[in-house]
């Protein structure tokens, strides 16, 4: 299956393979069909494309040489971390080099006094917390894939996780990046001090999906492990009431470490899979974790318990011990694979909405689901309004994948309509290019292209991802033009 | 006095005044010498320059019309908020329009459920907290000038304050901006939801010092007022020990709401001015404020007290009540004017360093002070390593201003040398252009110019500020070239 929304005319240059073999050891240049197969998609398997060649550099110098080569030959480059991304940001190009950072897997330095660590981009997210645990520290952002996903990919997609409600997204938890430019030059953005003067290129790089440079080193912030974590599990007989409870908790000035919601289909799937002792008849459950100082957690647990009951919870359980707390999370953490057991395929969406819209939006998603005939399970970061509707379908039934994508698109457009955005933490990649046309007007998209061109005038870094062309938006027909049009200097097309 | 480090050839176009009078009411276009005088500098009075004309628009449409006019005539534009900035970011250009946002002073909307407020850029920082106080909310960043400074200026300079140790800089406390482009088009960056897809233009705009667009609306995040605030005042007989205590507190996993340090000259000046009952013989004091949940604050106060004593504090006072807590702060808050009383002039620097360098850097500043013959008082945000050395001088003594600037430059370069940066919260403006050459290499500066050009190809928005030209750096002779050079497409010069 090849479903590439790429508007570029293909221009394969096989000489790049020969030249790469001069730069890298034989085992680090993959070009046979069998070797390329594992790289044909990332975590978004609906889109597949084999690259022209995969390069596996081991040193910064090799990355610089590869970029100089590709720049000279005008060959596009797609960077790849662990390949767990869910929006197709690392989808290869048929005429491009796939630059894997898998061999950049060293923790370079841990600085407990400055609460920071310097790591290579291929280091797994969880490996950072493991490496610094003996200092009482951890790295806060925790995507569901944290066992497997790489920190470089986290930066490229500005990843979140359960804990980002309290501790922020990746952009709030990194200090400095080392990158290789499209022309092969090494540069740094950010600083280990409070603020970096001049333009905030660190934030600009974070979430830029490989379009501005190749990340070769990441300095992350570390946090002290909280003294105590405690969790509550609340049952509701309507998703609206559960949504309202979320707004009540946040509105009371409490910032939980995590505040997650699952609806009935998700509860049932998780319970059948891992037996977490979930209330299978509840319309929705909320799992609320509080962490911090012991005395603070004790009082906040009481306050949250009261808020949940006042908001109409039919039952509220407080974990008696850490084993029970982990059991509360067991079902939530297994929810995606659990849904995978009850449906041949599922499509995980990722949109954000203002918290107060949770109830109405979940109801509208149920209506859209009924209209399309495809079931939807909801498992998501309710605290920050980050929805993850899982659309259940069977790719073997002709037309169902397309129907699932259509329903997904409609859900994202609903998010924008209520004042939200088309992504929370998974990035745009290739998946949400059309919805970017709904989110932004052509002036705003043009501005993003202009910024991209400031780093990559020839459009060689991950072309076709994250920011749609105006042409594509015009074809999609959902061009959002609430303001006028900005006229920037003539820009290259990506 | 005219001390403009501007490399642009002047090109005054008086017709812009006539045309502005067609767009705005007579009282909103200022062009006589007497009318222009109040605008000849911002908070950095060492640099002064009258603009060609001052425009005081009242509506977004008027801002758009002014920008269209200036774009057509190719007249440079400098935006100005309250004019309290300390790095000369709002210094006018002799041939430019000074665009004052003073009349944009309305709070448009307060949304307690979403904990956000939408305000015009001319609204004063403190006015936001006052307007939302009845909801139990406040806006966290608190520059010393918060009674007077405007939120638009805060965004332009990415301002900090005492509370930014715990609650972050301006960039961490805003959600969305509305801007007018150099061509007069209205556009938005950011979102009221968790994350905004595509490139992070919100962070890019924050701290960009008026070089990328004119801010016409700011949506800020609001925080719940903490249940309790408590403060400690610790005396030390050496600045090094005080610096080490700061590192101990932060290293213990405590994040105070504020952690401020004053050295002996600053203590004496403040005490003489406001009688805060400071220990006038101490080499340094630390003021540590803890806020949050009542029980948490109680225990943290005990922990901090013990850490301070263990670190060698000769005395630690805990505020008995809120009146005493406010007295602790009274001297700190009055420290700048207090220093103004003991010296005809002073020059406030703003650099950041890694916390563990506090002691050594303060010692080296004392040496540099002795070498130059100018006294230095230190009053600063110790918790995040943000120094504010106040260099005392007398502008009436020939050569002393130059000597003060030289000492200031040497201190900033010292900050960079120990791994810090040349600004913490005051921005670069015109003041630190030379030090930017020390902080960044030419490839990095070239990249900033390329990003600037993506928004403002003709270089009409606040030219000559924040990012030095490579030519200037070459002349300054401190060009920092630890990496190679990036070659971007031919760029306009600013």
UniProtKB/TrEMBL annotation, chains A, B:
Residues 47-225 form the FAD-binding PCMH-type domain. Gene3D superfamilies: 3.30.465.10, 3.30.70.2740, Uridine Diphospho-n-acetylenolpyruvylglucosamine Reductase, domain 2, Vanillyl-alcohol Oxidase, Chain A, domain 4. Keywords: FAD, Flavoprotein, Oxidoreductase. InterPro entries: FAD-bd_oxidored_4_C (IPR004113), FAD-bd_PCMH (IPR016166), FAD-bd_PCMH-like_sf (IPR036318), FAD-bd_PCMH_sub1 (IPR016167), FAD-bd_PCMH_sub2 (IPR016169), FAD-linked_Oxase-like_C (IPR016164), FAD-linked_OxidoTrans_Type4 (IPR051914), Oxid_FAD_bind_N (IPR006094). Its cofactor is FAD. The keyword Endoplasmic reticulum does not apply. It comes from the Bacteria. One of its GO terms (molecular function) is oxidoreductase activity. This is FAD-binding oxidoreductase. It comes from Lamprobacter modestohalophilus.
């Amino acid at each position: 299956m090849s479903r590439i929304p790429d508007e570029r005319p293909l221009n394969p240059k096989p000489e790049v393979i020969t030249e790469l073999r001069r730069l890298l050891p034989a085992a680090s240049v993959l070009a046979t069909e069998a070797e390329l197969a594992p790289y044909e998609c990332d975590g978004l398997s609906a889109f597949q494309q084999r690259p022209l060649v995969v390069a596996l550099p081991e040193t910064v110098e090799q990355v610089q040489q590869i970029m100089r080569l590709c720049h000279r030959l005008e060959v596009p480059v797609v960077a790849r971390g662990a390949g767990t991304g869910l929006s197709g940001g690392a989808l290869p190009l048929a005429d491009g080099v796939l630059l894997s950072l898998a061999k950049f897997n060293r923790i370079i330095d841990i600085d407990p006094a400055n609460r920071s660590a310097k790591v290579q981009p291929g280091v797994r997210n969880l490996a950072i917390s493991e490496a610094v645990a003996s200092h009482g520290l951890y790295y806060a952002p925790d995507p569901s894939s944290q066992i497997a996903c790489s920190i470089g990919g986290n930066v490229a997609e500005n990843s979140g996780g359960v804990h980002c409600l309290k501790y922020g997204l990746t952009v709030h938890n990194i200090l400095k990046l080392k990158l290789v430019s499209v022309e092969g030059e090494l540069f740094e953005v950010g600083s280990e001090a409070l603020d970096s003067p001049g333009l905030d290129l660190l934030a600009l790089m974070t979430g830029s999906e490989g379009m501005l440079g190749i990340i070769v080193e990441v300095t992350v912030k570390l946090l002290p492990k909280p003294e105590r974590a405690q969790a509550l599990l609340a049952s509701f007989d309507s998703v609206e009431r559960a949504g309202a409870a979320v707004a009540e908790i946040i509105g009371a000035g409490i910032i939980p470490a995590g505040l997650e919601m699952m609806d009935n289909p998700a509860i049932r799937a998780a319970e059948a899979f891992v037996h977490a002792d979930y209330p299978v008849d509840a319309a929705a459950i909320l799992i609320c974790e509080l962490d911090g100082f012991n005395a603070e957690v004790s009082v906040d647990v009481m306050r949250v318990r009261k808020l949940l009951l006042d908001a109409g919870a039919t039952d509220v359980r407080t974990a008696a011990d850490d084993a029970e707390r982990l059991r509360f999370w067991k079902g939530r953490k297994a929810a995606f694979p659990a849904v995978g057991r009850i449906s041949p395929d599922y499509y995980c969406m990722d949109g954000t909405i203002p918290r107060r819209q949770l109830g109405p939006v979940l109801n509208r998603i149920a209506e859209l689901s009924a209209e399309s005939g495809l079931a939807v399970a909801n498992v998501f970061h309710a605290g920050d309004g980050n929805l993850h509707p899982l659309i259940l379908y069977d790719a073997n039934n002709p037309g169902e994948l397309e129907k699932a994508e259509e329903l997904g698109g409609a859900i994202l457009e609903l998010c924008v309509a209520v004042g939200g955005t088309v992504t929370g933490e998974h990035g745009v990649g290739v998946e949400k290019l059309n919805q970017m046309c709904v989110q932004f007007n052509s002036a705003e998209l043009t501005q993003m292209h202009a910024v991209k061109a400031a780093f990559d005038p020839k459009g060689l870094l991950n072309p076709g991802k994250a920011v749609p062309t105006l042409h594509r938006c015009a074809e999609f027909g959902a061009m959002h033009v609430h303001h006028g049009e900005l006229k920037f200097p003539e820009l290259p097309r990506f």
